[in-house]
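Quick question, first post here. What does this chain look like in 3D?
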Amino acid sequence: MAPRRETLLLLERASAAALDKLAKNLVAVDLTEQMVLSEVFLIASGQNERQIEAIADNIEMKLAAQNERPVRREKSSRWILLDYEDLVVHVQTEEIRNYYMLERLWNDCPRIEISAIENVGGEDK
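> Answer (accepted):
Ran it through. C-alpha cells below.
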C-alpha cells in the first residue's frame, strides 16, 4: 500500500512551505505499512527556535490557504508537531533531531522523494 495521492500533494505543499523558510534536511517517511493513524511523516530542521516557529507557521499558513488545518499542534521550544491526520510534520532544531533521530526509528520504512527540493535547484535543504 502506498500513500494516497491527496496525502502526497499535502506533503509537497508542506515541503515547499518549509523550504520557503529555509528548512534543512527534509525527509519524508512512508508509514503506510506500519501505522494506521498516519500515512507520512515529514521531518525538517531549523537552526534555532525562531526558525522552527517560522517554518511551522508558514506550513500552517500555506496549507490553510488550501483549506487544510492541523487537527493538533504540539510545541516545545525545539520541536513543533503539526498533525494533519494522514501527514504529520515534525519541525525540529538540529540538536533535538540528532537526539531523537526519528528517521532512524523509522529506518525500515521507505522514503518518499520530495519534488519541492528539486524545484529549488536540487540543493541539500
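The radius of gyration is 13 Å.
The first strand starts at residue 24 and ends at 30.
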